[in-house]
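When time allows, look over one protein, given below as sequence and tokens. The question is which stretches look regular and which look disordered:
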Amino acid sequence: MTELGIGLIGTGFMGKTHALAWRAARAVLGRDLPQVRLEMLCDTPEAKAAEMADQFGFARATDDWRALVADPRVDVVSITTPNNLHLEMACAALKAGKHVWCEKPMALTMADAEEMVAVARDAGTVTMVGYNYIRNPAFLHAKKLIDEGRIGRVVHVRGWVDEDYQADPDLAWTWRARLKDAGLGTLGDLGCHLVSLVVGLCGPIESLVADTQIIHATRPLPDGSGRAVVENEDTATALLRFASGAHGSISTSRSAWGRKNRLDWEVHGTKGMICFAQERMNELQLYVNEGPKSEQGFRTILTNPEHAPYGAFVPAPGHQLGFGDLKTLEAGDLLRAIRDGRPCFPTMQDALGFERVIHAIAESAAQGCARVTI
């Protein structure tokens, strides 16, 4: 395969992680991956696009995303813009025959997400949605332990994801607080990641009961002219039933003082349990009911080259991977899928399943904690 031209839309935190991932993927993961060419970067204003293209190493810059997706030298489009722009950009790129790497959540509404899936199906190109936490070698090893029956039959799962970026009541109002710009609140920002993890560990969610909360009903406008209404949730909690028969609960907050990226989960089985904390993302805690009771306890498993693909980054335990490394793994998997002409998990169709869960949580809350079937 000849080299692939990369187009990047957006240069914020996620835009930078995509740029770094594209640059690192082949160096880290091997020469069997296609070569990439950082072809075009888009942001506004045009001067900013030119500055960031120089910093990230892209050959060209533009302030017109439509020009980027139509450019014949762009083969793959990375979309890292605010949520309300995903639908139009992704659909245009797909219709232009491009492969698409789109950040989560896919869209503001289920109808929009379903439209993206339909367009992707017709396009026949490779799509991937940015659920990077499911590529953590620690998560992959936990899944392997569960699949092998190491903790017995899974009966219960608990998960929570908390940050404090909206905890301050005096923080200025932004687009993140408005439904037409952001869609869901903490569910779209954080909760969908947690859903991807618990579904990956325990299988499909069958039904749920949920509630949500807006903690700060209004926020000050940036120009000091008054206050604006917060339209989406700060917290959400759901009780889950899985198709396997397991039960569980998940909770998410964007207003949890002191929490920076507390993305934690624990899976309980009939023979033991597994625990994980994202702020210690290179560790698993495993408890198995085996041996003398006097010697039982949690065992810390430190990820190492035995937990592929950790070894592609460093050759020894304890050196640890980071958030950006998981984005590099995403880029590598997408390149392999394009090379091999196969889907790349999670495709837009797969991600639709995750987003169906978070919208069901919002629906249950709106109906007064009614049970909703997924």
About this structure: The chain has a mean pLDDT of 97. The first helix runs from residue 13 to 29. Residues 97 and 233 are 36 Å apart (CA to CA).
